[in-house]
Amino acid sequence: MPLAEVPNLVPALPEIFLACAAMVLLMFGVFQKSPNAAEEANTARNIGLVAVTMLVLAVLLVAMVGGTGEASLYAFGGLFVVDPFASFFKVLVLIGSGLTLVVSGDYLKRQGIARFEYPVLVLFAVIGMMMMISANDLISLYLGLEIQSLSLYIIAAFQRETLRSTEAGLKYFVLGSVASGMLLYGSSMVYGFTGTTSFSVLAEMFAGQGGHTPSVGLIFGLVFIVAGLAFKVSAVPFHMWTPDVYEGAPTPVTAFFAVAPKIAGLALFIRVLTGPFGDLVAQWQQIVVLLSIASMVLGAFAAIAQNDIKRLMAYSSIGHVGYALIGLAVGDAAGVRGVMVYMSIYLFMNVGAFACILAMRRGDEMVTQISDLAGLSKTHPLLALGLAVFMFSMAGIPPLAGFFGKLWIFLAAIDAQLYTLAIIGVLSSVVAAFYYLRIVKVMYFDDVEESLDQPVGREISLVVLGTGLIILLFFVYPAPVINGAQAAAAALFAG
User: Are 325 and 292 in contact (CB under 8 A)?
Assistant: First the structure.
Protein backbone atom coordinates (compact mmCIF):
# COMPACT_ATOMS: atom_id res chain seq x y z
CA MET A 1 0.00 0.00 0.00
CA PRO A 2 1.48 3.40 -0.96
CA LEU A 3 2.32 5.66 1.97
CA ALA A 4 -0.25 8.23 0.81
CA GLU A 5 -3.02 5.64 1.25
CA VAL A 6 -2.07 4.69 4.81
CA PRO A 7 -4.77 6.15 7.09
CA ASN A 8 -3.64 8.65 9.69
CA LEU A 9 -4.77 7.07 12.97
CA VAL A 10 -2.74 9.27 15.31
CA PRO A 11 -5.66 11.62 16.18
CA ALA A 12 -7.71 8.59 17.29
CA LEU A 13 -4.85 6.96 19.21
CA PRO A 14 -6.46 7.31 22.69
CA GLU A 15 -9.71 5.72 21.47
CA ILE A 16 -7.88 2.90 19.66
CA PHE A 17 -5.77 2.26 22.76
CA LEU A 18 -8.84 2.07 25.01
CA ALA A 19 -10.69 -0.18 22.54
CA CYS A 20 -7.76 -2.63 22.45
CA ALA A 21 -7.41 -2.50 26.24
CA ALA A 22 -11.14 -3.14 26.74
CA MET A 23 -11.13 -6.15 24.42
CA VAL A 24 -8.03 -7.62 26.08
CA LEU A 25 -9.61 -7.18 29.54
CA LEU A 26 -12.84 -8.73 28.25
CA MET A 27 -11.02 -11.83 27.02
CA PHE A 28 -8.97 -12.04 30.21
CA GLY A 29 -12.13 -11.86 32.30
CA VAL A 30 -13.83 -14.57 30.23
CA PHE A 31 -10.94 -17.01 30.63
CA GLN A 32 -10.56 -16.20 34.34
CA LYS A 33 -14.27 -16.66 35.06
CA SER A 34 -14.90 -18.87 38.07
CA PRO A 35 -18.03 -20.21 39.79
CA ASN A 36 -16.43 -19.24 43.10
CA ALA A 37 -17.80 -15.85 44.17
CA ALA A 38 -14.61 -14.83 46.01
CA GLU A 39 -12.43 -15.58 42.99
CA GLU A 40 -14.87 -13.79 40.71
CA ALA A 41 -14.77 -10.71 42.95
CA ASN A 42 -10.97 -10.80 42.99
CA THR A 43 -10.85 -10.99 39.18
CA ALA A 44 -13.28 -8.06 38.94
CA ARG A 45 -11.14 -6.04 41.36
CA ASN A 46 -7.94 -6.70 39.37
CA ILE A 47 -9.61 -5.83 36.06
CA GLY A 48 -11.02 -2.69 37.66
CA LEU A 49 -7.53 -1.59 38.75
CA VAL A 50 -6.16 -2.24 35.26
CA ALA A 51 -9.08 -0.32 33.73
CA VAL A 52 -8.31 2.71 35.94
CA THR A 53 -4.67 2.49 34.85
CA MET A 54 -5.75 2.38 31.20
CA LEU A 55 -7.85 5.51 31.73
CA VAL A 56 -4.84 7.30 33.25
CA LEU A 57 -2.69 6.29 30.28
CA ALA A 58 -5.45 7.49 27.94
CA VAL A 59 -5.27 10.92 29.61
CA LEU A 60 -1.56 11.04 28.77
CA LEU A 61 -2.29 10.01 25.17
CA VAL A 62 -4.96 12.71 24.85
CA ALA A 63 -2.45 15.27 26.14
CA MET A 64 0.15 14.07 23.63
CA VAL A 65 -2.19 13.97 20.63
CA GLY A 66 -3.94 17.22 21.50
CA GLY A 67 -0.74 19.02 22.44
CA THR A 68 0.01 20.09 18.87
CA GLY A 69 -1.13 23.70 19.22
CA GLU A 70 -4.41 25.16 18.02
CA ALA A 71 -4.46 23.21 14.73
CA SER A 72 -7.24 20.63 14.32
CA LEU A 73 -6.27 17.07 13.42
CA TYR A 74 -8.60 14.92 11.30
CA ALA A 75 -8.94 11.17 10.87
CA PHE A 76 -11.21 8.72 9.01
CA GLY A 77 -11.82 11.03 6.08
CA GLY A 78 -12.77 14.02 8.21
CA LEU A 79 -15.33 12.14 10.32
CA PHE A 80 -13.17 12.51 13.45
CA VAL A 81 -11.55 15.73 14.68
CA VAL A 82 -9.14 16.45 17.53
CA ASP A 83 -8.69 20.02 18.72
CA PRO A 84 -8.10 21.70 22.12
CA PHE A 85 -11.87 21.67 22.75
CA ALA A 86 -12.04 17.88 22.30
CA SER A 87 -8.91 17.30 24.37
CA PHE A 88 -10.27 19.38 27.27
CA PHE A 89 -13.55 17.48 27.49
CA LYS A 90 -11.91 14.09 26.92
CA VAL A 91 -9.65 14.66 29.93
CA LEU A 92 -12.72 15.51 32.05
CA VAL A 93 -14.53 12.35 30.90
CA LEU A 94 -11.49 10.15 31.59
CA ILE A 95 -10.92 11.65 35.05
CA GLY A 96 -14.60 11.32 35.99
CA SER A 97 -14.78 7.72 34.75
CA GLY A 98 -11.58 6.76 36.57
CA LEU A 99 -12.73 8.27 39.87
CA THR A 100 -16.13 6.54 39.72
CA LEU A 101 -14.40 3.21 39.05
CA VAL A 102 -12.13 3.78 42.06
CA VAL A 103 -15.04 4.31 44.47
CA SER A 104 -17.19 1.49 43.08
CA GLY A 105 -15.15 -1.56 44.11
CA ASP A 106 -16.33 -1.97 47.70
CA TYR A 107 -19.99 -1.37 46.83
CA LEU A 108 -20.03 -3.96 44.04
CA LYS A 109 -18.37 -6.54 46.29
CA ARG A 110 -20.79 -5.95 49.18
CA GLN A 111 -23.81 -6.18 46.91
CA GLY A 112 -22.57 -9.41 45.33
CA ILE A 113 -22.32 -7.92 41.83
CA ALA A 114 -18.53 -7.63 41.57
CA ARG A 115 -18.27 -8.96 38.03
CA PHE A 116 -15.48 -8.23 35.57
CA GLU A 117 -17.95 -6.97 32.95
CA TYR A 118 -18.54 -3.72 34.88
CA PRO A 119 -15.16 -2.00 34.31
CA VAL A 120 -15.07 -3.34 30.73
CA LEU A 121 -18.49 -1.81 30.00
CA VAL A 122 -17.34 1.47 31.51
CA LEU A 123 -14.34 1.46 29.15
CA PHE A 124 -16.57 0.83 26.13
CA ALA A 125 -18.89 3.65 27.26
CA VAL A 126 -15.89 5.97 27.59
CA ILE A 127 -14.78 5.09 24.05
CA GLY A 128 -18.23 6.12 22.80
CA MET A 129 -18.07 9.38 24.76
CA MET A 130 -14.67 10.25 23.33
CA MET A 131 -15.96 9.56 19.82
CA MET A 132 -18.94 11.83 20.50
CA ILE A 133 -16.67 14.64 21.63
CA SER A 134 -14.54 14.32 18.46
CA ALA A 135 -17.44 13.81 16.05
CA ASN A 136 -17.18 15.91 12.90
CA ASP A 137 -20.08 14.32 11.03
CA LEU A 138 -23.65 13.34 11.84
CA ILE A 139 -22.75 9.69 11.16
CA SER A 140 -19.78 9.58 13.54
CA LEU A 141 -21.89 11.50 16.08
CA TYR A 142 -24.52 8.77 16.05
CA LEU A 143 -21.95 5.97 16.12
CA GLY A 144 -20.26 7.37 19.22
CA LEU A 145 -23.60 8.06 20.88
CA GLU A 146 -24.80 4.49 20.42
CA ILE A 147 -21.53 2.91 21.58
CA GLN A 148 -21.94 4.93 24.78
CA SER A 149 -25.67 4.27 25.15
CA LEU A 150 -25.56 0.50 24.67
CA SER A 151 -23.02 0.17 27.46
CA LEU A 152 -25.00 2.48 29.75
CA TYR A 153 -28.23 0.53 29.23
CA ILE A 154 -26.49 -2.62 30.48
CA ILE A 155 -24.81 -1.15 33.54
CA ALA A 156 -28.04 0.63 34.57
CA ALA A 157 -29.53 -2.86 35.03
CA PHE A 158 -26.29 -4.37 36.35
CA GLN A 159 -27.85 -5.40 39.67
CA ARG A 160 -30.22 -7.64 37.74
CA GLU A 161 -31.43 -9.54 40.83
CA THR A 162 -33.28 -6.43 42.03
CA LEU A 163 -36.49 -5.17 40.46
CA ARG A 164 -35.55 -1.48 40.72
CA SER A 165 -32.27 -1.88 38.83
CA THR A 166 -33.93 -3.92 36.08
CA GLU A 167 -36.68 -1.32 35.82
CA ALA A 168 -34.08 1.47 35.60
CA GLY A 169 -32.28 -0.28 32.75
CA LEU A 170 -35.53 -0.93 30.87
CA LYS A 171 -36.77 2.67 31.22
CA TYR A 172 -33.43 4.02 30.11
CA PHE A 173 -33.35 1.67 27.11
CA VAL A 174 -36.89 2.42 25.91
CA LEU A 175 -36.67 6.19 26.30
CA GLY A 176 -33.09 6.25 25.00
CA SER A 177 -34.22 4.41 21.87
CA VAL A 178 -36.90 7.05 21.28
CA ALA A 179 -34.30 9.81 21.65
CA SER A 180 -31.94 8.03 19.25
CA GLY A 181 -34.79 7.76 16.74
CA MET A 182 -35.45 11.50 17.03
CA LEU A 183 -31.76 12.22 16.51
CA LEU A 184 -31.61 9.97 13.44
CA TYR A 185 -34.78 11.49 11.99
CA GLY A 186 -33.38 14.98 12.46
CA SER A 187 -30.08 13.95 10.88
CA SER A 188 -31.88 12.46 7.88
CA MET A 189 -33.84 15.69 7.38
CA VAL A 190 -30.65 17.76 7.54
CA TYR A 191 -29.07 15.44 4.99
CA GLY A 192 -32.15 15.54 2.79
CA PHE A 193 -32.20 19.35 2.65
CA THR A 194 -28.43 19.91 2.40
CA GLY A 195 -27.03 16.79 0.75
CA THR A 196 -24.27 16.34 3.34
CA THR A 197 -23.69 15.11 6.89
CA SER A 198 -20.24 16.67 7.32
CA PHE A 199 -19.98 19.36 9.99
CA SER A 200 -17.31 21.22 8.00
CA VAL A 201 -19.38 21.30 4.80
CA LEU A 202 -22.54 22.31 6.69
CA ALA A 203 -20.67 25.17 8.38
CA GLU A 204 -19.41 26.45 5.02
CA MET A 205 -22.87 26.10 3.50
CA PHE A 206 -24.63 28.14 6.19
CA ALA A 207 -21.83 30.71 6.41
CA GLY A 208 -22.37 31.50 2.75
CA GLN A 209 -26.09 32.15 3.06
CA GLY A 210 -25.62 35.85 3.65
CA GLY A 211 -28.23 36.03 6.37
CA HIS A 212 -30.98 34.25 4.42
CA THR A 213 -33.39 32.15 6.44
CA PRO A 214 -32.79 28.41 5.98
CA SER A 215 -35.58 26.14 4.75
CA VAL A 216 -38.37 25.03 7.10
CA GLY A 217 -37.39 21.38 6.62
CA LEU A 218 -33.85 22.08 7.75
CA ILE A 219 -35.12 23.87 10.86
CA PHE A 220 -37.32 20.86 11.66
CA GLY A 221 -34.30 18.59 11.34
CA LEU A 222 -32.30 20.83 13.65
CA VAL A 223 -35.12 20.80 16.23
CA PHE A 224 -35.18 16.98 16.22
CA ILE A 225 -31.39 16.85 16.66
CA VAL A 226 -31.60 19.28 19.59
CA ALA A 227 -34.38 17.18 21.15
CA GLY A 228 -32.29 14.00 20.87
CA LEU A 229 -29.25 15.68 22.40
CA ALA A 230 -31.37 17.26 25.15
CA PHE A 231 -32.46 13.77 26.20
CA LYS A 232 -28.85 12.64 26.49
CA VAL A 233 -28.04 15.48 28.92
CA SER A 234 -31.45 15.12 30.67
CA ALA A 235 -32.60 18.67 29.97
CA VAL A 236 -36.27 19.44 30.67
CA PRO A 237 -38.68 18.34 29.15
CA PHE A 238 -36.58 15.32 28.13
CA HIS A 239 -35.57 14.53 31.71
CA MET A 240 -38.29 12.00 32.56
CA TRP A 241 -35.89 9.04 32.78
CA THR A 242 -33.36 10.67 35.10
CA PRO A 243 -34.88 10.41 38.64
CA ASP A 244 -36.01 6.79 38.21
CA VAL A 245 -32.76 5.63 36.61
CA TYR A 246 -30.63 7.45 39.21
CA GLU A 247 -32.66 5.91 42.05
CA GLY A 248 -32.89 2.37 40.64
CA ALA A 249 -29.38 1.89 39.26
CA PRO A 250 -26.56 0.77 41.60
CA THR A 251 -25.06 3.83 43.31
CA PRO A 252 -21.66 3.67 41.54
CA VAL A 253 -23.52 3.53 38.22
CA THR A 254 -25.55 6.57 39.25
CA ALA A 255 -22.30 8.39 40.07
CA PHE A 256 -20.95 7.50 36.64
CA PHE A 257 -24.17 8.62 34.90
CA ALA A 258 -24.11 11.94 36.73
CA VAL A 259 -20.59 12.77 35.59
CA ALA A 260 -19.06 11.31 32.42
CA PRO A 261 -22.08 10.94 30.05
CA LYS A 262 -23.34 14.36 31.13
CA ILE A 263 -20.02 16.03 30.30
CA ALA A 264 -19.71 14.19 26.98
CA GLY A 265 -23.31 15.03 26.05
CA LEU A 266 -22.80 18.75 26.70
CA ALA A 267 -19.55 18.70 24.71
CA LEU A 268 -21.43 17.16 21.79
CA PHE A 269 -24.27 19.66 22.21
CA ILE A 270 -21.77 22.54 22.01
CA ARG A 271 -19.90 21.11 19.02
CA VAL A 272 -23.08 20.47 17.00
CA LEU A 273 -24.72 23.85 17.61
CA THR A 274 -21.64 26.09 17.44
CA GLY A 275 -19.96 24.14 14.62
CA PRO A 276 -22.13 23.16 11.64
CA PHE A 277 -25.09 25.23 12.84
CA GLY A 278 -23.09 28.11 14.34
CA ASP A 279 -24.44 30.62 11.80
CA LEU A 280 -28.01 29.56 12.55
CA VAL A 281 -27.77 30.82 16.13
CA ALA A 282 -30.95 32.87 15.69
CA GLN A 283 -32.85 29.64 14.96
CA TRP A 284 -31.58 27.51 17.86
CA GLN A 285 -30.80 30.05 20.57
CA GLN A 286 -34.41 30.44 21.69
CA ILE A 287 -34.77 26.63 21.99
CA VAL A 288 -31.67 26.40 24.18
CA VAL A 289 -32.89 29.31 26.32
CA LEU A 290 -36.20 27.51 26.95
CA LEU A 291 -34.39 24.24 27.76
CA SER A 292 -32.13 26.10 30.18
CA ILE A 293 -34.93 27.93 31.99
CA ALA A 294 -37.11 24.80 32.28
CA SER A 295 -34.17 22.71 33.57
CA MET A 296 -33.12 25.29 36.17
CA VAL A 297 -36.64 25.86 37.47
CA LEU A 298 -37.63 22.19 37.62
CA GLY A 299 -34.27 21.20 39.12
CA ALA A 300 -34.71 23.84 41.83
CA PHE A 301 -38.32 23.14 42.81
CA ALA A 302 -38.75 19.39 42.20
CA ALA A 303 -35.83 18.44 44.43
CA ILE A 304 -37.34 20.14 47.48
CA ALA A 305 -39.82 17.31 48.12
CA GLN A 306 -37.30 14.47 47.67
CA ASN A 307 -36.38 12.25 50.61
CA ASP A 308 -34.06 9.89 48.72
CA ILE A 309 -30.66 11.51 48.23
CA LYS A 310 -30.10 9.80 44.85
CA ARG A 311 -33.36 11.25 43.48
CA LEU A 312 -32.36 14.61 44.93
CA MET A 313 -29.03 14.38 43.09
CA ALA A 314 -30.94 13.51 39.91
CA TYR A 315 -32.93 16.73 40.07
CA SER A 316 -29.78 18.57 41.10
CA SER A 317 -28.03 17.33 37.94
CA ILE A 318 -30.99 18.51 35.84
CA GLY A 319 -30.60 21.95 37.40
CA HIS A 320 -26.85 21.97 36.75
CA VAL A 321 -27.46 21.13 33.08
CA GLY A 322 -29.75 24.16 32.97
CA TYR A 323 -26.94 26.40 34.25
CA ALA A 324 -24.50 24.94 31.70
CA LEU A 325 -26.99 25.54 28.87
CA ILE A 326 -26.90 29.25 29.71
CA GLY A 327 -23.36 29.30 28.36
CA LEU A 328 -24.44 27.47 25.20
CA ALA A 329 -27.33 29.89 24.71
CA VAL A 330 -24.83 32.76 24.70
CA GLY A 331 -23.41 31.16 21.55
CA ASP A 332 -19.90 32.66 21.62
CA ALA A 333 -16.44 31.79 22.95
CA ALA A 334 -17.11 33.41 26.34
CA GLY A 335 -20.23 31.30 26.85
CA VAL A 336 -18.47 28.07 25.88
CA ARG A 337 -15.58 28.94 28.18
CA GLY A 338 -18.09 29.36 31.01
CA VAL A 339 -19.58 25.93 30.27
CA MET A 340 -16.14 24.31 30.29
CA VAL A 341 -15.16 25.89 33.62
CA TYR A 342 -18.56 24.95 35.07
CA MET A 343 -18.34 21.31 33.98
CA SER A 344 -14.79 21.00 35.31
CA ILE A 345 -16.01 22.04 38.75
CA TYR A 346 -19.22 20.01 38.41
CA LEU A 347 -17.12 16.89 37.86
CA PHE A 348 -15.36 17.12 41.23
CA MET A 349 -18.45 18.27 43.14
CA ASN A 350 -20.50 15.32 41.95
CA VAL A 351 -17.83 12.65 42.28
CA GLY A 352 -17.15 13.82 45.83
CA ALA A 353 -20.85 13.92 46.74
CA PHE A 354 -21.49 10.42 45.37
CA ALA A 355 -18.40 9.11 47.16
CA CYS A 356 -20.03 10.32 50.40
CA ILE A 357 -23.32 8.65 49.41
CA LEU A 358 -21.45 5.38 48.78
CA ALA A 359 -20.20 5.55 52.37
CA MET A 360 -23.78 5.58 53.74
CA ARG A 361 -24.12 2.13 55.32
CA ARG A 362 -25.84 0.69 58.33
CA GLY A 363 -24.62 -2.82 59.02
CA ASP A 364 -24.45 -4.57 55.65
CA GLU A 365 -27.24 -2.46 54.20
CA MET A 366 -26.84 0.58 51.95
CA VAL A 367 -29.12 3.48 52.87
CA THR A 368 -30.03 6.47 50.70
CA GLN A 369 -32.64 8.37 52.70
CA ILE A 370 -31.66 11.90 53.65
CA SER A 371 -32.92 11.23 57.19
CA ASP A 372 -30.26 8.51 57.51
CA LEU A 373 -27.63 11.27 57.55
CA ALA A 374 -28.88 12.49 60.95
CA GLY A 375 -25.99 12.91 63.37
CA LEU A 376 -23.34 12.13 60.77
CA SER A 377 -21.22 14.97 62.14
CA LYS A 378 -20.91 13.05 65.42
CA THR A 379 -20.25 9.55 64.06
CA HIS A 380 -18.21 10.46 60.93
CA PRO A 381 -17.14 14.11 61.35
CA LEU A 382 -14.74 14.18 58.38
CA LEU A 383 -17.27 12.58 56.03
CA ALA A 384 -19.90 15.10 57.18
CA LEU A 385 -17.45 17.94 56.58
CA GLY A 386 -16.70 16.67 53.08
CA LEU A 387 -20.38 16.32 52.16
CA ALA A 388 -21.07 19.80 53.59
CA VAL A 389 -18.33 21.26 51.37
CA PHE A 390 -19.87 19.66 48.28
CA MET A 391 -23.38 20.81 49.19
CA PHE A 392 -22.23 24.39 49.83
CA SER A 393 -20.34 24.36 46.53
CA MET A 394 -23.37 23.09 44.59
CA ALA A 395 -25.41 25.86 46.20
CA GLY A 396 -22.86 28.36 44.80
CA ILE A 397 -21.65 29.75 48.13
CA PRO A 398 -18.29 31.60 47.92
CA PRO A 399 -15.38 31.05 48.10
CA LEU A 400 -16.01 27.44 47.06
CA ALA A 401 -15.48 26.38 43.45
CA GLY A 402 -19.20 26.09 42.63
CA PHE A 403 -19.58 29.85 43.11
CA PHE A 404 -16.96 30.60 40.46
CA GLY A 405 -18.51 28.10 38.04
CA LYS A 406 -21.84 29.91 38.18
CA LEU A 407 -20.11 33.31 38.14
CA TRP A 408 -18.45 32.62 34.77
CA ILE A 409 -21.75 31.38 33.31
CA PHE A 410 -23.78 34.37 34.54
CA LEU A 411 -21.12 36.90 33.43
CA ALA A 412 -21.19 35.43 29.92
CA ALA A 413 -25.00 35.74 29.85
CA ILE A 414 -24.87 39.36 31.05
CA ASP A 415 -22.23 40.26 28.46
CA ALA A 416 -24.51 38.78 25.78
CA GLN A 417 -27.43 40.84 27.19
CA LEU A 418 -29.37 37.72 28.17
CA TYR A 419 -30.39 39.43 31.39
CA THR A 420 -33.61 37.47 31.95
CA LEU A 421 -31.77 34.18 31.66
CA ALA A 422 -29.12 35.31 34.15
CA ILE A 423 -31.73 36.54 36.63
CA ILE A 424 -33.70 33.27 36.45
CA GLY A 425 -30.43 31.40 36.97
CA VAL A 426 -29.61 33.38 40.10
CA LEU A 427 -33.13 32.95 41.52
CA SER A 428 -33.04 29.21 40.79
CA SER A 429 -29.72 28.99 42.65
CA VAL A 430 -31.33 30.62 45.67
CA VAL A 431 -34.21 28.12 45.66
CA ALA A 432 -31.86 25.17 45.12
CA ALA A 433 -29.74 26.28 48.08
CA PHE A 434 -32.66 25.24 50.31
CA TYR A 435 -32.32 21.51 49.68
CA TYR A 436 -28.53 21.56 49.72
CA LEU A 437 -28.52 23.34 53.08
CA ARG A 438 -31.21 20.96 54.32
CA ILE A 439 -28.72 18.08 54.02
CA VAL A 440 -26.16 20.05 56.05
CA LYS A 441 -28.82 20.79 58.66
CA VAL A 442 -29.73 17.07 58.94
CA MET A 443 -26.07 16.08 59.39
CA TYR A 444 -25.23 18.68 62.01
CA PHE A 445 -28.44 19.50 63.87
CA ASP A 446 -30.84 16.55 63.75
CA ASP A 447 -30.92 14.02 66.57
CA VAL A 448 -29.39 10.63 65.96
CA GLU A 449 -31.95 7.84 65.84
CA GLU A 450 -30.00 5.12 64.07
CA SER A 451 -26.59 6.29 62.93
CA LEU A 452 -24.42 5.09 60.08
CA ASP A 453 -22.13 2.67 61.87
CA GLN A 454 -19.67 1.45 59.24
CA PRO A 455 -16.15 2.82 58.68
CA VAL A 456 -15.43 4.63 55.43
CA GLY A 457 -13.30 2.68 52.95
CA ARG A 458 -9.82 3.87 52.00
CA GLU A 459 -10.63 4.53 48.34
CA ILE A 460 -13.72 6.57 49.19
CA SER A 461 -11.80 8.51 51.85
CA LEU A 462 -9.06 9.42 49.37
CA VAL A 463 -11.55 10.52 46.70
CA VAL A 464 -13.55 12.63 49.18
CA LEU A 465 -10.33 14.22 50.46
CA GLY A 466 -8.94 14.93 46.99
CA THR A 467 -12.14 16.32 45.47
CA GLY A 468 -12.90 18.27 48.65
CA LEU A 469 -9.51 20.00 48.55
CA ILE A 470 -9.99 20.89 44.88
CA ILE A 471 -13.40 22.44 45.63
CA LEU A 472 -12.08 24.28 48.70
CA LEU A 473 -8.87 25.60 47.18
CA PHE A 474 -9.96 26.27 43.61
CA PHE A 475 -10.02 30.03 44.23
CA VAL A 476 -6.33 29.97 45.21
CA TYR A 477 -5.13 28.91 41.75
CA PRO A 478 -7.92 28.69 39.15
CA ALA A 479 -5.63 29.63 36.24
CA PRO A 480 -5.06 26.11 34.77
CA VAL A 481 -8.78 25.43 34.34
CA ILE A 482 -9.73 28.94 33.20
CA ASN A 483 -6.81 29.33 30.78
CA GLY A 484 -7.34 25.84 29.37
CA ALA A 485 -11.04 26.50 28.87
CA GLN A 486 -10.35 29.87 27.25
CA ALA A 487 -7.84 28.39 24.79
CA ALA A 488 -10.15 25.47 23.96
CA ALA A 489 -13.18 27.73 23.40
CA ALA A 490 -11.16 30.10 21.23
CA ALA A 491 -9.88 27.20 19.13
CA LEU A 492 -13.44 25.90 18.64
CA PHE A 493 -14.64 29.20 17.22
CA ALA A 494 -11.43 29.81 15.28
CA GLY A 495 -11.99 26.48 13.52
Answer: yes
Q: Give dist(CA 334, CA 340) in Å, integer.
A: 10
Rounded-to-integer distance, Cα 86 and Cα 73, Å:
11
CA proximity to 343, closest of 417, 233, 447, 419: 233
How many whole angstroms separate alpha carbon 233 and alpha carbon 424? 20
Q: Are 373 and 447 in contact (CB under 8 A)?
A: no
Sequence ranges of the domains in the chain: 8-494
How many angstroms separate the CA atoms of 492 and 486, rounded? 10
To the nearest whole number, what is the mean pLDDT of the chain?
86
Report the distance separating Cα 12 and Cα 18, nearest Å. 10
CA distances from 464 to 50, 236, 312, 461 (A): 22, 30, 19, 5
pTM (2 decimals)? 0.93
Among 14, 7, 12, 148, which residue's Cα sits nearest to residue 81? 12
pLDDT tens-digit map of 208-225: 654 457 788 888 899 999
Residues 328-358: tens digit of each pLDDT: 998 888 889 999 999 999 999 999 999 988 8
